[in-house]
Amino acid sequence: MNPNYLDRVFAEKFHMNPMQMLRELRMKKVRRMLETSEYTLPEIAVQCGLGDASYLTQQFFKRFGLNPGMYRQQVRLNDQTYYKSP
Question: Among 32, 40, 41, 85, which residue's beta carbon has the most beta carbons within 10 A?
């Protein structure tokens, strides 16, 4: 199959190219791991195929507008507030 054809058909179906989809899926996995695990950023980066923590941080900030550490802290604070509410 021609790569250009694949990109075009994929974009028509998903409104993004395959690399954008892969990046989006990786960022969603990073976000989920930050919310539900105690893994360090380097461990998450490796498990999500992002190479290193620096690149993960750069891509996460670009996608979500805050760094992974701040995101994790915000999620935990929200969880604490939720469970303490009457």
Answer: 41
Total-model pTM: 0.83
CATH code: domain of residue 54: 1.10.10.60
Could you list the residue range(s) of the whole structural domain that residue 18 is in? 3-84
Indicate the SS3 state at residue 50: coil
* Separation CA 22–CA 10 (nearest Å): 12
Number of domains in the chain: 1
Cβ(36)–Cβ(44) under 8 Å? no
Q: Which of 58, 80, 75 is nearest to 67 (CA)?
A: 58
pLDDT digits (tens, 9 = 90+) for 23-38: 999 999 999 999 999 9
Q: What angle do CA 68, 70, 76 make, to 5 degrees?
A: 100
